[in-house]
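Researcher: Before we compare anything, I want clean individual predictions. No alignment, no superposition, just each chain on its own. First chain goes here; please echo the sequence and then give the structure tokens.
Model: Echoing the first chain and its structure:
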Amino acid sequence: MPLIYEDRTRKDALYEVAQRMMTAARTAPKGHGTDNLIIAVAERDVIETIAAKMKDMVQTGEAAEFFNRDANNILRSDILVLLATKIKPLGLMNCGLCGFKDCREKEEHPEHPCAFNTGDLGIAVGSAASVAMDARADNRIMFSVGKAVKALNLLGDEAKIIYGIPLSATGKNPFFDRK
């Protein structure tokens, strides 16, 4: 029986982690029981497209210099989990957490998120990252990835706030001790 070395199974293992991360994000608690999340996984070709867009955003002045660093980081990942939220008020009418009097007034500002949208996304991102941690997969939550994904419209028009979590399994975590 031949030996199967870890480097042959690494990407499959990370893909399994990503699947569990997506499940954790989907099942994370949501305000008023309303699910406005969009969740996907990007592989090598899409990761390269996102990294190129991040670098382009720096060149055109749309993004800070650290987007180049983050682009180089994601190029060292095998899998990239993408988590986004739609912007839709939950209809709690008078909560006012978004800064408007009620949901009717908030709806006059469709690009302004409902506080529950961002809260739910944050809980989902934390749940997903905790799964990666439990699996001992190197990861980092990156809003810079989300800005590029949004600019590319990879998750569609409804994805308004997006985060990326790159995954890696190497001897040294490429997402920390960064320059």
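Researcher: Okay. Second chain, same rules.
Model: Second chain and its structure:
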Amino acid sequence: MAETGRVLTAGRLALDLGTHEVRWDDAPLPAFRPREFALLATLIGEPGRVFTKRELETAVLGYDGLVGSRAIDQHVVNVRAKLPDPTAIRTVRGVGYGLVASAG
């Protein structure tokens, strides 16, 4: 991960923390909702690391979600649908999610 001012990058993916813009290969992607952006910002902060669902709930929702909540799963589905390469976010069954270190 590289941080230049307020832009986080990993591979072909870039997030502008000031404008909430997400870019892939320097092309803007469709608008991300605030929680989707927060999820992606958390993942891009440590590419390659797998975050537990509880860690993502705290980072994205601001609290530990309800036991059995599927909120994070749904946010991941939404984010993947907006990325040109949905495999940039990997699932580790029974653990959580991570951004593939090369992100495309």
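Researcher: What stands out in the second chain?
Model: The longest strand covers residues 7-10. Additionally, Strands lie at 2-4, 7-10, 13-16, 21-24, 27-28, 50-52, 89-92, 96-99.
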